[in-house]
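Casein kinase I, Stentor coeruleus. C-alpha cells?
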Amino acid sequence: MSFRKKVGQYTIEKVLGVGGYGQVYLTTHRKKQEKIAIKVSRDRETLMREYSFLKQLSKLDGFMKIYEYRQLEDDDYFAAELLGKNLSYNYNDRILSLECVCAIGIELIDRIEKMHENNIIHRDMKPSQFVLSADQKSIVLIDFGMACFYRVNGQHKEFKTRRKCRGTVSYASINNHLGFRQSRRDDLESLCYSLIYLVRGGLPWKLETYVEGFKKWKVVLNQKINITDKELFGDLPIEFSAMLKYTRKLCYDQTPNYSYMKSLMEKFLNSDKIWHYFDWLESPDKPRQRRCSQIVDGATTITKLKREKKVYERRPKKVKFSVKDMHHNKEMNNPDFNNIISEKFKSISKTTIQKHRHKHNLSMIDERDRKTSIDSHSDSKNSHLHMPNYANNEMEGFKIKKYKSKKSMRLYKVLSALDIDKIEKPNELKKMGSCSNSIGQTSGLLQEGSDECSTPKLELPEFKNRDLIIKARAIFADNSALENHRCLVF
Ligand SMILES: Nc1ncnc2c1ncn2[C@@H]1O[C@H](COP(=O)(O)OP(=O)(O)OP(=O)(O)O)[C@@H](O)[C@H]1O
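C-alpha cells:
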C-alpha cells in the first residue's frame, strides 16, 4: 500500500489528525519551504462550508489563519496556519491544574463570543478542537465542519424539535440529546463538559464499548440527567457547577452573558496574562497550581488511555496474512492452516463480535440478549399503558415536585437538570396523551438518531427512560406556548 506523499504543491511530512470526514497533514510548500497544515477531504460540500466559516473568522484573533482552497481530482483541500497540539490527551498525560483550566476557559469563552457575534455556532465543542497556537500562548478553536449559522439576516432561526443529535456524545448538551435544534447555549454547555474533562482527566459517563450509534446517545443522556453534583464535579469549586447550571438555564434564542461566565473563571486567576497559568509554559513567577480529584472510571479518562496504551505496547505483534495467503495455504493443504485460523478467531474479542452483529443487524443469539429484546418489545406495545394520566390536571402553575411516583420523579430529574421547577401551562401536558399513542410519532426525537447512527432502527423501547423523554419532549414541544415562561427553555 502506498501512502500519499503530496497534495497539490505541498509535500506531506506527517499526519496531524484523522477525523470524521478528513485528514490533516503537516506539509511543506515546495517552493516557499514553509510549514503549512493541510486539511484534505472527499466531502467537498462539508469542506467548502468549513472553509467559508474559517475564512470569515480568520481575520479575528484566536482563530486559525486560512489560506487557499483547491479542488483536486479525487478530493479537495485547504491550507491553514500550522498550530500546536490539541488538548484532548491533556498536557503530558496528566490532568491540568485548576488555574490552567480556568485560563483555557476564559480564552475559549472569548472565542465562542466572537464566533457567536459572527452568527456562527460550532456544534462540536470538545477538547480535541482546542489547539495550542504556534507559540503555545493561546488556544485556537478549530474544526468548523459541523458549524452553521444560527442567525440569518439578523433573525434567529426558529426553534425546532426532532433534530439529529449532532457532535460528540460525551460533550453534547442535554437539549442536543433531546433532539432540539442547537443554538448558542449548546456550545457553552459543551464547553463546560470539556473543561470538566480537562480538569478532572475524564468525564464520568460510562459506556460499554459495544454500545454504538444512537443507543450511545440514550445511555449518556440517562447518565447526564441522573448524575449527582458530587460525581460530576468532585472537589471542583462551586463556580464550575454554577457555570454549567447557567448554560442549561439559557433560553433557545437568549444571548448568553459571556462576561458572567468569564468572571466565574477569573476568580482563580490574579494576573491579566492568561498564558501565565498554562501548565505547559514555564515562567519564573509561576503562580500556585492546584490539582482536583481525578475521574478514573469513565468512558474516556486519562488513566484509561494510559492503561490502554500500556496494553497496546505490551501486545505482541500479530502475524498478518492476507486472503491470498489463506487460499494458498488451504490449497497447499498446509497442516498449520487450521491452527492459524482458530488462533486468529480466538483473538477476536466478544466485543468485536457484538459490534459486528450490531452493525449488520444480526439477531442476538445469546439468551440474555434475546430476553432483553423480548422484554423491550413487549414494553413497546404497551407503552401507552405506562403513561401516567397528567391530562386531567388543569391546575395553573403546575409544580413538578407535586408528583411522587417513580416515573414523575424521573421527569422531575430531567426538568431539574434543565433547572425547570415549574411548568406554567399544565395544559401542555395534555399533549402527552396524543404522543403516547404512537411510538412512531414520539420516537422522532429518538430515532432520527445521531450522525454516527448506522442503525437507525434501534429499538426505542430499549431506552429505560423512554417515558421521561416523551414527557419532556411533549412539554417542550410547543415553542410559542413556552416563550414567555420563567422556565427559560426556548
Ligand atoms: N492547523 C492545524 N495545525 C496543527 N494541527 C491541526 C491543525 N488543524 C487540525 N489539526 C489536528 O488535526 C486534528 C483533526 O483536525 P479536525 O478536527 O479539523 O479534523 P476532523 O476531520 O474534523 O476531525 P473530527 O472528526 O475528529 O472533529 C485536530 O484534533 C488537531 O490535533
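The first helix runs from residue 44 to 57.
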